[in-house]
């Protein structure tokens, strides 16, 4: 039986990169027997401007019940003037599908892409497990006396034992499955004595179940410093929603930019459930429609999607091909090439077919 | 009349670097007529282990009433087992003295110290204004059903119009005084819709009073990415307490490490009030007592202190001498030299005396 994959190209450069990613998926479907049904969703800024639709319940329900994966391009369009519609969709997927583990590999595929002196691709290779359903993103809080000199504005960083534990477990399970020797917790428990004391305590409790793995603690500020000095000692990093967001953008910088960073959001304890796959980059309005967007992030994201569908070997193949694209300059300008989005896609498809 | 400067060497490498910084201050006192009275405080881990004293009210009161500055080394000692005593002192100073602007220059003094390929010292030169009395650091929140599977742990990110506005004003005032063309706000207003909507709104309101300066907005995740790609476009960054903490550690990485980063915490609207001066580094227990600590961060911090005392030209002089120390390898190992803390101090003092 074929697996239903929802494609949500979205805004800005989203449609351009998802178009190329779609070609890759179609190739796997037509030539490699990966039995998928592609279902393209007309959601995002265009749709919102047309009829105010953001994330309809019938679509959300069908995704939850029938889909195995959602492949999302990017959301955000200056014409709309705010991000409410984008949050409806993005958080509708992340929260609505309870995709608690946002998995973001920070892996450099070519020495040239690493912006650090005396460091090469081999030094940039870790995976961030970002909690994806709680923390500051719940947007609990409010504004009191808004617009007056006495205004108070609050957002709560909300963490549950259940939410924290399952994310940490996902990180350790991944470490075990991949033979990692360490897992790092990144927090700010020296300042956030309630929320991050829970993270700290839970981390070392969970670690006891994985005696072969060394649990290590690092403050988020120190982590960001180490990442620009020497990222080579990190293998798996578990962290909260906000810090995961920050550290993976920094990590994208170490990989060669947002055009090189893919991600998966999973309900990690049950691999049969639907997953969300998105390049880490945004909609990049200034690049949109110009054939300038780097499709490699979305190809790497497709690699994670194929792994989710039960084809783990394809990730390595896609990664190797992206690495060759960089090496041979068959890539876009942001990573040192001169090709357009479409030409990179053409080359990639042709090579995949060999 | 002489100005009272409280010295708080603290823990770990704190006493070693503050000893050198004290020599610099004494030299300014004895040879350059900078009329200061030095008052050394016996506070920190040693004192706490001896008699449980953390931050006594009589000392806090005398600082508030009589001192012009506090020069703090670092706090934190593994023998104590927790950081409560350290927070009593550090937050006692920052919050107790209402030092709302934590000013952290991110300035590389030598090309060799910049860890980025194709970037030199000229590309790393901005100042972070970190809000220092609110945000997540108020530690408002709690734990509910602690230790059970249903545990909930919360920290509130608390922001007031007054607190946000005065910090943003401090950043713009600095920008105006130093001829900066831009001020960046770094926030996460796309996720923290209450707390950071206030920051966003307030930023652009304040900016109207500074028509010659261009206000620019950047999300914190994007900022961390830009900083490893190309930090050269930033001049002044205003941000909240937590993001300021993170971004200045990353910034220290761009400057050559924590051994090169100084800071001042001021009640910026009233320069006559007491200020707190601290190197950005921590107590670094593994380095303590080994004559390995880099004293340059504390010398640069003394430069900021002298500026606070009304001697702005000395900052440039100290900075130039530190730059020469790096260039001529009259420095510690962390920045490519072979000297010990004391030997660097000896050289620095001798050069200052010329
Ligand atoms: C668009 C924004 C809300 C989002 C986030 O913060 O999660 C983005 O930065 C990301 O990392 O996917
Ligand atoms: C020790 C810690 C609480 C402190 C902070 O987070 O402010 C430190 O990281 C700093 O930047 O001065």
TrEMBL record, chains A, B:
<keyword id="KW-0560">Oxidoreductase</keyword>
<protein>
    <submittedName>
        <fullName>3-isopropylmalate dehydrogenase</fullName>
        <ecNumber>1.1.1.85</ecNumber>
    </submittedName>
</protein>
<dbReference type="Pfam" id="PF00180">
    <property type="entry name" value="Iso_dh"/>
</dbReference>
<keyword id="KW-0520">NAD</keyword>
<dbReference type="InterPro" id="IPR019818">
    <property type="entry name" value="IsoCit/isopropylmalate_DH_CS"/>
</dbReference>
<keyword id="KW-0464">Manganese</keyword>
<dbReference type="GO" id="GO:0003862">
    <property type="term" value="F:3-isopropylmalate dehydrogenase activity"/>
</dbReference>
<keyword id="KW-0479">Metal-binding</keyword>
<dbReference type="InterPro" id="IPR024084">
    <property type="entry name" value="IsoPropMal-DH-like_dom"/>
</dbReference>
<dbReference type="InterPro" id="IPR050501">
    <property type="entry name" value="ICDH/IPMDH"/>
</dbReference>
<feature type="domain" description="Isopropylmalate dehydrogenase-like">
    <location>
        <begin position="4"/>
        <end position="348"/>
    </location>
</feature>
